[in-house]
Amino acid sequence: MRKIAVISADIINSSKFEEAAFLNTMHVLEEPAANYLVRKGEPLLASRGDSFQIMTEEVEDSFLRAVYLKAYFKRMELGLKDGEGQASIDARISLAVGSVQNIPSNIGKTMEEPFVLSGRALDQMKQKKQTFIITTPNDNYNQEFALTCAFLDHLFKHWTLAQAEVIYYLVQGYKQIEIAESLGLSQPSVSNRIQLANWSLIEKVNTRFIDVLSKL
Description:
The chain is of the alpha+beta class. Helices cover 45% and strands 19% of the residues.
């Protein structure tokens, strides 16, 4: 058995955004060899242009990849179809970890445990108005992560575009001075945005997530 992580995602209210502007955001899925989200050789399933699923054997990185997705979309504003202005974009993210007998070559046709867990949780999120969830095969850990993700949901909801932008870079391993140079900001300004985005809490959740992985 091999442990993998599956991230299922869909864009919230994608139909309200101007199509051209919305489609430009989806380049996060392109050029996987040079992409933080999708590494070279990892399978990806995209559907309808506003939902997708990825699989990775790098399970210890999977929580931060899910946070990366949140930051990637939250840092953008898109034009609305009604022409009344701009609106922030958001995505539901369902991260599941589990074991598989074999690594599937076509993730759209597998019923292995982590794919089922991730997809099922994503469907339930729509009813519960959640936007972020972590699921494992262990019910006790799932209860813990349900509470943790409720706090994360609140945190992500209140990110400003500026805060999401620094997290987008930070989660990829950029240092504060590098982020400042990329955004044309001072290092203290970057540091302030990181604090306001509660990066320290995200780091603590990641530490706990990796600890749980070692026990599954």
